[in-house]
Design a protein that fits this description.
This protein has 85 residues and is mainly alpha-helical. Helix content is 84%, strand content 0%. It is elongated. The protein starts with a helix and ends in a 7-residue tail after the last helix.
Length: 85
């Protein structure tokens, strides 16, 4: 029971801390006071996660392209093709 309680307290702390951090960020960007900035926290969180999703997608696509290039290079070497320089 103590583990569940500790985990729950940790999750609540992370959520509250994240909300405070986002509210502080909004207040710095907009010049609003911290309590006024709390109304913009859901929108800021959505924007943040969308940005993270786009960055992750770009990274995965870049990694896949590099993998494909390397595979073509390796297949060329194995089949006795010329060495790329």
């Amino acid at each position: 029971m103590g583990f569940v309680r500790s985990t729950f307290a940790l999750l609540v702390g992370v959520a509250v801390g994240g909300s405070l951090l986002l509210a502080y960020r909004v207040s710095q960007e907009t010049g609003k006071s911290l309590p006024e900035a709390f109304s913009d926290v859901p929108e800021e969180a959505k924007r943040l996660f969308e940005d993270l999703r786009v960055r992750a997608t770009d990274s995965v696509n870049t990694g896949r392209a590099a993998y494909r290039e390397k595979q073509v290079e390796i297949e060329g070497r194995l089949s006795g093709g010329s060495r790329p320089e």
